Amino acid sequence: MICAMATWDDVREIALALPETTEEGLYGQPSWRVRKKLVVWDRPLRKRDLEELGDAAPDGPILGAKVEHEVAKQALLASEPDVYFTTSHFDGHAIVLVRLERISVADLQELIEEAWLMAAPKRLAKAYLEQHA
After folding, report:
1. Phi, psi (deg, nearest 5) at residue 26
2. Which of 13, 23, 56, 107 is the most exposed place for a label (fewest CB within 10 A)?
C-alpha cells in the first residue's frame, strides 16, 4: 500500500483544525501557533545548515516541529532518518526537522497534534484530549 506524502496544504489543514491555532509569518515563512506559542513552521535550510549537512542536505520543503523532549527527538531521528533530521542549530532543543515530502499524512497528523498538545495551555489541551479520546 502506498501512502500519500504530505504537503504544505496538509500541514495547514491539520494545524488549523486544532483549537485556537493561527497561521502567522516567521522570518517570511508560515508558522502555526496556539496562543502565540510556536507549534510547527516552515524551516528552509540556511547557509550554515547547508554547509554542515553537505551532500546530505535535503532540497525539498522542511518542516520544523517541537517534540516532547530530547529522548523523543532522538527516537524519531533514529527510527526514520530518511524523514527526520536535525542540525547543530537545534542542539539542546526538543525540535526535529522533517522532510515534508517523505512523511505520510498520518504521521504528520500525529506529529502536529503532539506538538500542539505541548504548546497549548493545559486546560485547552485537556479539553481537546477529552473530546478526542
Report:
1. -140, 105
2. 56
Q: In what order do the strands lie in the sheet with 21-26?
A: 21-26, 29-34, 37-42, 62-66, 95-99, 84-85
> Burial code of 15-54, b = ≥16 C-beta within 10 A, e = fewer?
beebeebeeeeeeeeebbbbeeebbbbbbebeeebeeeee
The answer as to whether 111 is a domain residue is yes
| Domain annotation covers residue 64 | yes
CATH of the domain at 47: 3.90.1150.30
In this model, does residue 133 exceed pLDDT 80?
A: no
- DSSP-assigned letter for residue 6: P
pTM over 0.85: yes
What is the count of structural domains for the chain? 1
What is the span of the domain harbouring residue 71? Answer: 10-125
pLDDT (mean) for 30-56: 95
